[in-house]
Specification:
By secondary structure, the chain is mainly β. It folds into two domains: 31-179; 181-261, Immunoglobulin-like. The chain is 8% helix and 53% strand. It contains three helices and 21 strands. The protein has helices spanning 8-20, 126-130, 155-158, and strands at 31-41, 47-58, 67-69, 76-79, 89-97, 99-108, 113-116, 119-124, 133-141, 146-154, 159-161, 167-169, 173-179, 182-189, 195-201, 204-210, 216-222, 225-233, 242-249, 254-256, 260-261. The protein is elongated and about 80 Å long. It starts with 7 loop residues before the first helix and ends with a strand.
């Protein structure tokens, strides 16, 4: 069988990836990955600011005990009107259990406000600071797949002016959860050293990762299409790199490759 090897340019690019990747990119067994993004429909205000302090998901359906905070939430003040015209911002990117996501909720702090005609006023959000802004999802997520949850916050319909100068936030939020491409997974042997694994289309290396301590790897978030998958051992003094061509990726699917056995020089 004819063996395909890396070009010199790919080897250089691979070296860059080796120095920049880390273990945090490895997906735990039976986990999906979730990106939560926030966008907004226009409103007739100068600014609508929310104070985000936590994002939680519920995978059990138990409203009392089923909530868990997502790690790495980008806490802070967000002006919703900065996120119009198809703009969005990433709030969190975290591993979640595979299975069914029942609900998600935003927990807000006390620093919410609205600016009208240049005047900033407090934006009252009593429920958001206690039980949170709860949103129904009720969708399944598969292990090994990257998902994007887009929360479309309608500021114009969410802010209620009471007439006595007070503003209350009664959120109207549309949620869209979808798989962000597919994944490629497999195993490389020997496992006594790490191997860099790349997803390649044409001359472009689009994504990459490292094998873990038992040789497993997974590259997620790939657009549907055909890829070459490159394997470059960190022990280049003793082992040769190789590629697999014609690897097909479909959205929402983990493409599992046969075990790759690196050839000793």
């Amino acid at each position: 069988m004819k063996k395909l090897f890396f070009s010199a340019s790919l080897l250089i690019l691979s070296t860059v990836l080796i120095t920049s990747c880390n273990d945090s990119d490895s997906m735990p067994q039976q986990s999906a990955r979730l990106e939560v993004r926030l966008t907004d429909a226009p409103g007739d205000f100068d600014a609508v600011k929310i104070d985000l302090v936590d994002i939680q998901i519920n995978v059990t359906g138990n409203d009392d005990k089923g909530w868990q905070s997502l790690p790495g939430v980008q806490k802070g003040i967000y002006n919703l009107l900065d996120l119009v015209n198809d703009k969005d911002t990433l709030l969190v990117n975290a591993f979640i259990p595979a299975g069914r996501v029942q609900q998600i909720r935003l927990i807000l702090g006390p620093r919410n406000s609205i600016v009208v005609n240049g005047v900033e006023s407090p934006l009252q959000t009593p429920s958001a600071q206690q039980s949170g802004l709860k949103l129904n999802i009720h969708q399944d997520v598969a292990a090994g797949i990257l998902y994007t949850l887009l929360m479309d916050f309608d500021a114009a319909r969410s802010v209620v002016h009471t007439g006595n100068g007070k503003y209350i936030l009664k959120p109207v939020i549309r949620t869209v959860l979808k798989a962000a491409g597919g994944s490629i997974a497999g195993n490389v042997q020997p496992r006594s050293f790490r191997t860099a694994v790349f997803a390649i289309q044409g001359t472009d290396t689009l994504a990459g990762t490292f094998t873990d301590t038992i040789g497993n790897y997974q590259i997620r978030g790939l657009n549907a299409g055909a890829y070459s998958v490159g394997f470059l051992p960190t022990d280049t003094a003793n082992y040769l790199g190789q590629t697999k061509v014609g690897v097909m990726v479909a959205t929402g699917v983990v493409t599992k490759l046969d075990t790759v056995k690196l050839v000793h020089k």
